[in-house]
Design brief:
alpha/beta, TIM Barrel, 8 strands, 18% strand, binds the ligand O=c1ccn([C@@H]2O[C@H](COP(=O)(O)O)[C@@H](O)[C@H]2O)c(=O)[nH]1
């Protein structure tokens, strides 16, 4: 079975994206397309990803606007049938509900607190207190508004799970195999730690796509996850 990994295909062009997608697809459950590729290529890049494999498609657009505008945007991309579409939880209840209603066949995932923000950066944007408090508050609001998935750092998965229950898909970026560069990520953990904390889907980009052989990097992380699961089973 493919590992519960969404590879962030943050490529500068569609040829590179297609190459990465076909290299990693045999090893992972999901390919994630974000703003860089979608803003440049639109639906063409979704078709390219689907051509490369039969894995699930995660469209990470992090919509954040007034409810009517987000509803229109969600309706526009719902035609592409992504498995998951992200919105920012900070857009509020009405905005999240608008996305959920506009894309009924897509799992709306609410991004709680970006994994690139540390406590100092959070305070600078007016969020005092630990990231986990803000994440928990935004998670509860998002699920009440109809979101069926949450995006948070591996550090917050367990407390968010306790808040929202077992039926919500917990998605964690900020995943770094031991020894990988953190880059611009602040709240990070290893794949094994994220899984042990209760994550359902690990988002991993540069540790895979920046490797000399992205297919081998994906296979190696997938194998490490299988080993971790076997020892806890
Ligand atoms: O809080 C968030 C939400 C989304 N992301 C996205 O995940 C990947 C992470 O890529 P890495 O190369 O593994 O850092 C990227 O596409 C982000 O847009 C996130 O990092 N944090």
């Amino acid at each position: 079975m493919a590992a519960p990994i969404a590879v962030a295909i943050d490529a500068p062009d569609i040829e590179t994206a297609a190459r990465w997608a076909s290299a990693v697809a045999p090893h992972v459950s999901t390919l994630k397309v974000g703003l860089e590729l979608y803003l440049r290529y639109g639906p063409e890049v979704i078709a390219t990803m689907r051509g490369a494999s039969r894995v699930s498609l995660f469209l990470d657009l992090k919509l954040h606007d007034i409810p009517a505008t987000v509803a229109g945007a969600a309706r526009a991309v719902a035609r592409l049938k992504p498995g998951i579409l992200t919105v920012h939880a900070a857009g509020g209840t009405d905005m999240i509900r608008a996305a959920v209603e506009a894309a009924p066949d897509t799992r709306i995932a609410a991004v709680t607190v970006l994994t690139s923000l540390d406590e100092q950066a959070l305070e600078a944007v007016g969020m005092r207190g630990p990231a986990s408090d803000a994440a928990r508050r935004l998670a509860a609001l998002s699920v009440a508004a109809g979101a069926r998935a949450l995006v948070c750092s591996p550090h917050e998965v367990a407390s968010l799970r306790a808040e929202v229950g077992p039926d919500i898909t917990m998605i964690t970026p900020g995943v770094r195999p031991a020894g990988s560069a953190k880059g611009d990520q602040a709240r990070v953990a290893t794949p094994e730690e994220a899984l042990a904390a209760g994550a359902d889907l690990l988002v991993i980009g540069r540790p895979i796509t920046g490797a000399a052989d992205p297919g081998a990097a994906a296979a190696s992380i997938a194998a490490a996850l299988r080993r971790a699961e076997a020892t806890t089973a």
